[in-house]
Amino acid sequence: MNGFQARDFPPGFQPQQHQNHLQQQLPRPSLSPNNHWLNPMQPNPHPHFNQQQQQPQLNSAWMNQMQQFSSGMSAMGFNPLIQQQLFQDALAMSQPVEAADEPLIVQVLLSAKKKKESYKEALNNLHGRNGHSASLWKDYYLDHKDHIDTWINMCLEKEKSHHRRPPPDAVKREYSPARLPLSAPVASKKRKHSSPSTSATPVPLIGRSTLNSLSVPQPVYNDQMPAPNSELKIPDPPTRSPSPPTRVIPQGRGNKYTEEDRHFFLQFISWRLKQDPSLTRNDLCNMLAEKAPHHSAMSWASHWSNRHDLPDKILAAARGESYVSDEDDDEDDDEPELIRPTKRRPQYRDLTTEDEDEEDEDEDDGQLNKPADDDDDGDDGDDDNEAIHHYTENQMGQKGEPFTEADLYMASKHAAKYNQWLDMSSKDRWESFSEQFQQRSAKSWAEYYRRNEDNILRLRKKLRKEVRKATSSNGTSMNPAMSLNLPSQTLTPH
User: Fold this and answer.
1) Over the stretch 74-100, which tens digit does the pLDDT of each residue have?
2) d(Cα 223, Cα 305) in Å, to the nearest integer?
3) Angle at 238 between CA 235 and CA 242, to 5 degrees
4) Do residues 394 and 486 both lie within one domain?
5) 443 belongs to a structural domain
6) Do 385 and 365 fall into the same domain?
7) Based on the domain organization, do 362 and 396 belong to the same domain?
8) Could you report the per-residue pLDDT of 2-52, keeping only the tens digit for each?
9) Cα–Cα dist 283/275, whole Å
């Protein structure tokens, strides 16, 4: 029996009963194959033992180890300090993440995104922050992922836009010069009192501002050219009536326009329109002549026409109308204006002198009693020698087509029907005309007139002269408007 002989047992000893007694008193050890406390079990060769059961070998070393293990477990299991610390740590890490912790999540994830780190690693680094475990941080992020991601993206976009916008001081303003010919002919207007014209001093060329820019002439601006900025600012009207200029410089048949005259002109019309917005352009010119008599009403009207952008805008603002500039879009933007060839050569002013800037205005200063809207029978140069080409309605441009010479002729003919044309408002001028020619609106005709006012008024004057000559040759006296197919009862006799 596993090395034991029958003589080794006392008389009356029963092996089976002794084995059952030992198994009831001793704890059953683990039968794990890695348990070094147990020796391999050997089958029992004794015939009185059950062959399906096994008997462990008990030795003193195994018993000592079991006693030490049991005493160690008892000491640790019943230590109250360790149990309390473990309970407090578990309780502290179980507090849920709240909305007040979102800024910390956004800050950590935003930093991770910039460093190209994973969100998982960033959230693991939050373990223990604000008393929350890493798993609770992850759970909160997953529950509010859309909201937090939107917040992060907004922060990134804000930073990108801030970096894109350079500071104002760092912006280098470079103006692209307009295309101008290197040389332009300089022609002086023929007058009896004019002196021999001197050649204009060439405008010096400015060198390259950068290495990549080309050396081109700088843009040249003068009073006869439109303002570079289309957004003209209306000056505030004065609080009292402005004083007329005291410095008068004679020139030609009249007086020269000075800077004081120009300033007084704008201040006066702003002041008068503030008092009475119903005043017309002709009324204002007459008032200007009364207030500053060194320029006639006709001269003030000519000054207005030569610099019409700002005064027209002041007048439109006083009436509550919208001033239409050259760059504004209207309902007829698809109607490009046809550039008409002219027979007269363009006149270029000498940029070195300002004596000729106001000659067209100053020549009429001596005619103080002449009404501003009356026809001028004076010398118009080569225009009087040119025959008027008459057009029909069928030759006018249609909707969507460019303006033609026929449009200019019909608009001038329409203006020639009215004796007080300059006193009329834009609505009175073109509302009836647009009803007659419905291919364009009244607003489009008004803008076309504004761009071609000088040509239309010149042709209007020639049409009225032509009618007078025709009537005088027949020995009759007829109002020009009656010959232009307008009911005479609506007009003032000329």
Assistant:
1) 545 556 666 666 666 666 667 788 888
2) 12
3) 115
4) yes
5) yes
6) no
7) no
8) 455 555 555 555 555 555 555 555 555 544 445 444 444 444 444 444 444
9) 13
